[in-house]
Structures are given as structure tokens and as C-alpha cells.
Amino acid sequence: MKTIKLSLRKIMLLAFSVMFYFSYSQSGTQPSAAVLGVDSKGVINDAESISFMLKLEVEKTNTYIIMDKYDIADVLKKNSVDIKTCLSKTCVVEAGKMLNVDKVITASVERFGEKIIITLKLIDIKSEKVEKQDVTEYINLQAEIQKMLRLSVHKLLNLQVDQSLANQLINYDTPIESPQNMVKLDGPRMGASLTTGDAAKVMKAPKDKGGYDMYPVNFILGWQFEKQYISAGNFKALVEFIPAIGALESGRIIPNATFLNGFRFGKGNWEIGFGPNFKIVRKADGFFDVNNELGKGKDEWYLEEYWNLPKKNPYTIESRLDSRGYLALSTGLFIGVGRTFKSGYLNIPVNLYVIPRKEGTIAGFSFGFNIYKKQKSR
Predict the structure, then answer these.
(1) Alpha carbon distance, N-terminus to C-terminus of the chain
(2) Is the CATH code 3.40.50.300 the one for domain 31-169?
(3) Which of 7, 57, 295, 303 is the most exposed place for a label (fewest CB within 10 A)?
């Protein structure tokens, strides 16, 4: 019985020894690498910061044994190599030989317009050739450079890429190809409008004549609720609801609301939209004294009850804008064109519009901003 127990102990010790040997052997054969030749242009992070982030992201993959930056600096200094200017392939290969590593990983992070371009290269020191390379264009979100480096490292080393992160940093403006997804693009809207026609005359007229005693040009302040419900390549369809108020500069508050069905197309994000516009106004029933029978001027406007002659009023009674009248709903067709400018996640829509109405046409412009926010798939 004792002999059997002793044999089992020996077998267990032998098994642990074999496991330790193989684990040590595997760790010992793991290739070594150094992060060198890092350059940055037009971004907030300098080359040293990017080098640190890149080293950290490569270490997380557990693919290479990464040489410590202080050891790298010490070896290169002894060999009179300036790590800040050692950017060429020839220089980094020679530096890799001095460091006695298997691979060297180089990086270039550069802003180009509204993009950040990250280029990573994996150089084999023995063959002196670029073994792998990855070039990725990201949106200009400089606070997310470490995440960008993480994606680039995974792509360089053929590791699994976080697709949701890639969508946020690479494909943020074309994520939907199905009506089963929605994108919210809500934000403030402001602008100005010019009223023409009979409505402009009423706006400028004094209050005792039914006017508003206000400017025909009004500042508009509102909020845009927008949902992009379909996307196919460079074509997008969307719906908008824009409640707003105007005429604050004239000491009044005139509410209005617009419902739009819009289309955005092309790489320039040009857009067109149309839909009903609703405005709360005051109207009154009255008549125009075409023949000056009341003696205050030809074509003068009077309320219906102002007819005080013994004969029957010969004029047609009609409804017209009048500050002395009752509240009424005025409708018009909103037709707008414009373009949405982009800066990272920020959208800046700029539009021109016209609202034809029987009582007077309104023309204006508006602008605002909103943040891209993708909703969950339904």
C-alpha cells in the first residue's frame, strides 16, 4: 500500500515538472519586440505619449515580450542613437539589432483634415523587412487616440476587433443599412425669417389699425427633433419635428411648429425637406372700404362691427390677420434645402427655406448643431 502511494507522489511531481518545463519553454520562446520610430503630427498627443499608449496596447495582447522604454533609451544612448529622430526603416532596424529584439513596431499618427490616420508597421529585424502593415482612417476624436491605437494593434496582429468600437471611431456616419435601425439627431435650431406680402403690412401697421407694430424680420429660436430611419450608401431618409418661437425682438412670442420629411444624399451631405408648417396667429372678420364710404381712406380695413351706416354693408366680409381678432391656426408648406457639415460626432446643419402662404410668403435661413446618437436596433 505504501509503495503505491509513493509512486503516485512521484507521478504527480513528474507531471508538475513537465507542465512547468513546457510553460517556461513557451514563455522563453515568445518573440521580443520594441516600440520605436513613433511620430505624431497635428494631434494633441506627442510622440512620447503615443509610444507609451502603443506599448501598453501591444502588451495587452500578450503577443510579444515588449522591451521596457528605459532599457531602450539606455541602449540607444550608449550607441549614440537619438530615439526622437530615429524614424526611418534603416534606423529602426539598426536600433532593433542593438536592442537584440525580434521585431520592431513603428507608428505614425497624423491628422489630415477631419480624419486621424494611424499607420502601424511590424518590422522583422532578422529579414529587415516590413512583415505587416496597417493604415486606418479614424474620425477626428483626439480624446480617443488610445482606443484607435487599440483597434490598429488588433488589426496589425490579426486579432479580433471590437466592431462596436470600430463603428464609433471609423464608420460613425454610415452605420445603418436597414429601416430596422434608427438614429437620433436632436439639437437646437436658430435663424431668421423675412415676411412678405399682406402679412408684412399687417406686421408693420400700428395696433389701432389691427397691426402688430413689429419688424417683418424675425429671429427664430427652436429645437430640432430628428430621426434618421433609413440609410443606403450616400442616401438617407429622415423625419423632423421643429417647434420654435419667434418675434422676441419685437416684444412678442409667436409659436410655430414644422413637420418635415427629408432626404440627405451625396458625400457632401446635401439635403432637402418639405412638410406642413403651423403657426398660431390672430385673425378678425372685416372688410375693405374700397369706395371710402366711411370717410377714412380708400381701401381702409375695418372690423365687421365698424360698419355704422344705415344701409346694408355692400362689402364682402373676409378673415384677415389682425392683432385685435381671435386666435387661429395658419398653415403653410415648408420647403427647405441645405447642407450638413460634420466635425467628428458633431453635425452642423445649415438651411434655406421658404413657406408660401396666402396672406404672405416667409423666407429664411436656419442653422444649429446636433450629436450623432445611434439607437438600439428594434
Answers:
(1) 68
(2) no
(3) 295
